[in-house]
Amino acid sequence: MRITAAVLEQIDTQTVPHRITLEQIELDDPRDDEVLVRVISCGVCGTDRGCLHGVEPYPTPGVLGHEAAGVVEAVGRNVTRVHNGDRVMIGFPFCGRCYRCLRGEQRYCEKNRDLTFSGYRLDGSGGMRRRNGEELAGRFFQQSSWATHTVALEQQLARVPDSIELEMAGPYGCSISTGAGTVLNELRPEPGTSLAVFGAGNVGLAAVMAARLTSVEHIIVIDKVPERLALARELGATHTFHASSDTVEEIKELTRHRLDYAIEATNGANLVADAVAALGMRGTCAVVGGSSPSAKVTLKHADLLGHGKRLIGVMGGGGQTPAFLESLMALQGQGRFPLEKLVRFYDFADVNRAIDDSDAGITIKPILRMPA
Ligand SMILES: [Zn+2]
Ligand SMILES: [Zn+2]
User: Fold this and answer.
1) Which of 271, 296, 313 is the last residue before a domain boundary?
2) How far is the CA of 93 from the centre of ligand 1 (A)?
3) Residue 129's pLDDT is what?
4) Integer CA distances (angstroms), 73 to 18, 77, 152, 240, in order
5) For position 14, what pLDDT does the model report?
6) pLDDT value at position 124?
7) What spacing in Å lies between the alpha carbon of 255 and ligand 2's midpoint?
8) 3-class secondary structure for 48-81?
9) How far away, in angstroms, is 112 Cα from ligand 2 center?
10) Ligand 1 centroid vs 97 CA: distance in angstroms?
11) Domain span including residue 187
């Protein structure tokens, strides 16, 4: 079928900006285990921007977008969980067959890298092409949903409860569940503990909202943008610090050297060493912010061994994908997870402005609205 998609012609750099243009393209029908979704809205995530700017790898020409919400328009003949007309959002892709998937750890699917960044299905086939026949890398996270329609795997879909607006649901698929899942699935802070979130973007602020649902005592947020720190306080941060060379000492003083948990949620993983240094004895630092595959982290050996600290990577918030996403959306419906405070909507045609505003830190969670 003919659809409109935001095509990335080549990697966007400072000298060659705005290489995304809306274009009419062809979308293949869903296969037996796939679903055609009419996209209502799609978030702009740090990983989209990472690929767009060449920090993370993605082939061009291609279509980005991996935080879609929409309505099911057609299903493959083996699809049983969703039906035409269902309100859905598209979460992380996973193969469902590997060692990790069979253990219920779909976010750590062994095929994750290929499913997310190759731009194609595992068998190498695509699904989007230009009208002149040129193949597009149109399976970003198996959804490439900066588009009016897309095809995704049945297993990556979650139902959107009636209690929330459909156009709000897409970001639960990646950035929001990454921040919230790190707190609720992985760190699980106990009463009386303290948690510091480095980076108050959409991932970090989702972690703050999730932390507020727990009995953690101190929720500390570090960022360099005053408006983000103010929003963090509104969402539940008990203390905020402007990022500086004094931050580690300030946190130690506040927590009496007993910081239990740190989440490094900056785009670029710039503050991992600070986050680990700020921890107290036996503290755990979760690295969740995206970065270049070749990026390195340097730590003081004594900071790990001397204090029994732990450093873990948490991908996509861990947890079982659709069930966890549905439970987070239900919390928003109850007013306990105010995602709407992070969001600003943009028309699809303004995709480049949404990216610029996100790059500049003006908008925390841009969501693109597709034309009706
Ligand atoms: Zn798998
Ligand atoms: Zn993402």
Assistant:
1) 313
2) 9
3) 97
4) 31, 13, 12, 45
5) 67
6) 96
7) 32
8) HHHHHCCCCCCCCCEECCCCEEEEEEEECCCCCC
9) 13
10) 5
11) 178-313
State the total domains in the chain: 2
Same domain as 275, residue 213: yes
Same domain, 163 and 50: yes
pLDDT value at position 16? 62
Residues in the chain, pLDDT under 50: none
Same-domain pairing of 209 and 353? no
For residue 324, list its beta bridge partners. Answer: none
CB-based neighbours (< 5 A) of ligand 2, an ion: 45, 47, 174
- SS3 (DSSP) at 149: strand
Report CA(96)–ligand 1 centroid distance (Å).
Answer: 5
What's the CATH number where 362 sits?
3.90.180.10
Rounded (to 5) percent helix, strand, coil in the chain = 30, 25, 45
Residues 56 and 19 in one domain: yes
Structural tokens at position 72? 């099911």
91 Cα–ligand 2 center, Å: 10
How far, in Å, from the CA of 308 to the mean position of ligand 2?
A: 31
Alpha helices in 106-224 (DSSP H): 112-117, 175-181, 202-212
